[in-house]
Write a structure and sequence with these properties.
mainly alpha, Fumarate Reductase Cytochrome B subunit, binds protoporphyrin IX containing FE, two-stranded antiparallel sheet
Length: 221
């Protein structure tokens, strides 16, 4: 016999799935803007390991080159949707009590190590799994803080005159831009790991983010 177990409230599912295409547009339009001044690199001192850019021919092929105006227009429109959806999501988690499943607690940091060891098959005993395990709690809370970080650093480089105090708080325009850029790389890394974990965990878990319920087999009485 099959039993349905409630997992994700409808509002959370909507916020989650609305966020996905919005964030994709923000990253894509960010790339159109970044093309105009692709300055970042990973390196030690003067030695550059790799430049944060894509090969020249891909700029042409993917129609990224010379579309700064497009990038800015999309970025400044979709950032409102990103902000509104994010703020509503945070308010919902606060007022519904869902934050209890999401915020890490004192045990989470130790447990997150256990989760990592278990995932790497270096530990046999499964770590405690409530609605979310400790690594998920840390990652999901971090991604919300990162969202807030993108909004405020974005504001600091969008209106550095009107919000001069904010730009100053980040250490100036260049530093605010630096944080804004690396937060985006953070989303991409989060996304790759997130998808990997979703695939690994399987269909039942993924489907629950759509229908709200997990399906469990229970023995017939
Ligand atoms: C195709 C893209 C995506 C898929 C398939 C996906 C899938 C999922 C699934 C299945 C869960 C539930 C995990 C569980 O119950 O153990 C989840 C939760 C979550 N995902 Fe995603 N996700 C995607 C994109 C994103 C993106 C782009 C973000 C943010 C940058 C994100 C942030 C989150 C957060 C914060 C949660 C926890 C939600 C809550 O309970 O409040 N996801 N995702």
């Amino acid at each position: 016999m099959k039993r349905l177990e409630r997992k994700h409230p409808l509002a959370i599912r909507w916020f989650h799935w609305i966020n996905f295409p919005i964030l994709a547009v923000m990253v894509w339009s960010g790339l159109l803007i970044y093309w105009a001044n692709a300055v970042y690199r990973v390196g030690v001192g003067k030695h550059t390991l790799f430049k944060m850019t894509i090969p020249e021919h891909l700029y042409e092929k993917w129609h990224i080159a010379f579309r700064l105006g497009w990038g800015l227009s999309f970025h400044f429109f979709f950032m409102w949707l990103f902000a509104i959806n994010g703020i509503l999501y945070v308010l919902y988690t606060i007022f519904s009590g869902e934050w209890r499943y999401l915020l890490p607690d004192r045990r989470s940091f130790i447990e997150a190590i256990q989760v990592t060891l278990y995932d790497l098959r270096l530990r046999k005993e499964p770590p405690p799994q409530r609605k979310y395990n400790a690594a998920q709690r840390i990652a999901y809370t971090a991604i919300i803080v990162m969202g807030l970080g993108s909004l405020v650093t974005g504001l600091a480089i969008y209106k550095p005159v009107q919000f001069a105090w904010l730009t100053y708080l980040f250490g100036g325009y260049q530093m605010a831009r630096f944080f804004h850029f690396w937060l985006t790389i953070g989303y991409v890394v989060f996304f790759v790991v997130h998808i990997g974990q979703v695939v690994r965990t399987g269909w039942n878990n993924f489907r629950a983010m759509i229908i709200g319920y997990e399906v469990h087999e229970v023995p017939n009485e």
